[in-house]
């Protein structure tokens, strides 16, 4: 990893109800940019309550203090969570900005596909050389999209990469 990054963010795709195994997941990531490279530093993908998401945001806020922007998808419970945490956590940012229409899920992923295919989106390894469990989950969902049963990783990743690499925005 580079010794420093140009920008670090948190990116979140929230579900309305994510407690049952059949529901969508709460999904978040810490992404960092160095030049045209995007590093996915951490991932969160669980069926859980909004309280667990709040705790994860707060934990990542401590672990990654330079992750100033916390992108929260402007849908479902995102704006409410951003308001709820605004007094405790700086940089809570509903995304996309108000008044800008988000493209379809396919369009959002297609916009960052050249960055993924060219090797500009990098996933982590553990110190022992193994992959974190969530890396295989992310890769599996992205590679089987749109036929995957869920699209939470796709939404989190496309939102974060398009924010960090403005050329990918539509």
Describe the structure.
This protein is α/β, with parallel strands linked by helices. The protein has five helices and six strands, in the order βββαβαβαβαα. The protein has helices at residues 50-63, 78-85, 105-117, 133-144, 152-164, and strands spanning 7-13, 26-34, 37-46, 67-73, 92-95, 121-122. The chain has a six-stranded mixed sheet with strand order 5-4-1-2-3-6. A hairpin with a 2-residue loop joins β2 and β3 (37-46). α3 (105-117) crosses α5. The longest helix is centred in the first third of the chain and has 14 residues, at 50-63. The radius of gyration is 15 Å and the shape is globular. The model has no long low-confidence stretch (mean pLDDT 89).
């Amino acid at each position: 990893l580079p010794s420093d990054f140009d920008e670090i963010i948190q990116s979140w795709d929230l579900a309305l109800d994510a407690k049952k195994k059949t529901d969508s997941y709460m999904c978040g990531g810490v992404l960092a940019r160095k030049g045209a490279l995007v590093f996915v530093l951490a991932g969160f993908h669980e069926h859980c309550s909004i309280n667990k998401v709040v705790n994860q945001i707060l934990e990542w806020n401590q672990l990654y203090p330079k992750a100033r922007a916390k992108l929260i998808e402007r849908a479902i419970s995102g704006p409410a969570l951003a308001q709820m945490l605004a007094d405790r956590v700086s940089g809570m940012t509903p995304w996309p900005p108000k008044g800008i229409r988000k493209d379809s899920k396919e369009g959002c992923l297609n916009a960052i596909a050249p960055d993924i295919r060219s090797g500009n989106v990098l996933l982590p390894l553990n110190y022992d050389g193994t992959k974190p469990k969530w890396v295989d989950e992310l890769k599996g969902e992205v590679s089987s999209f749109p036929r995957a049963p869920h699209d939470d990783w796709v939404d989190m990743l496309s939102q974060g990469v398009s924010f960090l690499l403005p050329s990918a925005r539509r």
